[in-house]
Design a protein that fits this description.
This is Multimeric flavodoxin WrbA. Residues 42-125 form the NADPH-dependent FMN reductase-like domain. GO terms for molecular function: oxidoreductase activity. It is a single chain. The protein starts with a strand and ends with a helix. 44% of the residues lie in helices and 25% in strands. α1 (13-26) crosses α5. The chain has 151 residues and is α/β, with parallel strands linked by helices. The protein is globular. It has one domain (2-147): 3-Layer(aba) Sandwich (Rossmann fold), CATH 3.40.50.360. Strands 1, 2, 3, 4, 5, 6 and 7 form a seven-stranded mixed beta sheet that branches.
Length: 151
């Protein structure tokens, strides 16, 4: 069974709503043969990342950058996972009250260094997530999980 690892930092109700939508999409009954594992960004280990076949990353954007928790996760897993996780699919969702561009750019840079493959557009939400935003998060989770079906 393939494993989708959702690495998230969920400090607010808006981030929680986005996280729950991602999980709902990733665990849709039409997606078979994929186990969804959730890890808080401050608790994820290199072993968690190595054991997974794909990733969804979630974070608030703080002052134009990913959360310190997600950065800590990358710092923890980067070198132990550098050569072993290349070409694995990933998706990203961000809650950014102001400008998520810096956070997107930073995650794109780190995931490019890891050799991960972006398989769906990033979801960046400002303010309270709208119905369309929640749907986009659902689609993000479902898309990355669907990439892993049959592995």
């Amino acid at each position: 069974m393939a494993v989708l690892l959702v690495i998230h930092h969920t400090p607010s109700p808006h981030c929680q709503e986005m996280f729950e939508a991602v999980i709902a999409g990733a665990t849709d009954p039409d997606i078979e043969g994929v186990e969804v594992v959730r890890r808080a960004a401050l608790a994820v280990t290199a072993s968690d990342v190595l054991a997974a076949d794909g990733y969804v990353l979630g974070s608030p954007a703080n002052l134009g950058y990913m959360s310190g928790a997600l950065k800590h996760a990358f710092d923890t897993i980067y070198y132990p996972c550098l050569d072993s996780t290349r070409d694995r699919p990933f998706g990203l969702y961000l809650h950014a009250n102001e400008g998520g561009e810096g956070a997107e750019r930073a995650v794109d840079s780190i995931t490019a260094g890891l050799g991960w493959q972006k398989v769906t557009p990033h979801v960046v939400v400002s303010g309270k997530p709208s119905k369309a935003d929640v749907e986009a998060c659902w689609n993000l989770g479902a898309t990355v999980a669907a990439q892993l079906m049959g592995q």
